[in-house]
Description:
The chain is an alpha+beta fold. The chain has helices at 3-10, 67-85, 103-121, and strands spanning 13-19, 22-30, 36-47, 53-63. It has a domain at 8-89: Nuclear Transport Factor 2, Chain: A, CATH 3.10.450. A hairpin with a 5-residue loop joins strand 2 (22-30) and strand 3.
Amino acid sequence: MSDKGMMEKEEIFSKVLRAGRRTYFFDVRSTRADDYYLTITESKKFTNDDGSFYYKKHKIYLYKEDFDGFREILEEMTNFIINEKGEEVISERHQKDFKKEYDDESTDESSEKSSTAEKFTDVSFDDI
């Protein structure tokens, strides 16, 4: 198949959702039998130490026979999250003053762990 024919198949219908460092691509594609299916791609931008960028991508292929089940479970899961936690975003990334409940506990534990680690590193391997 020519490149032009391949490009026409790839561009049946597409939408893009940009969400911070993530971008979601919703693409309608065609099977060999000329039926349609959906691909959902999550692309997340990362920065290398040298300042250059790279992207990690994850893709889901969703076929028509799975649409109803997928839609039902997606709706159930999103409704559960909204009902349990509301629509307000709660995360460190979105709230600069957000403090994890376990921050205080982790500082106590980390001092215990460091003293334990110091004891462990005091082992002399010359004794073996």
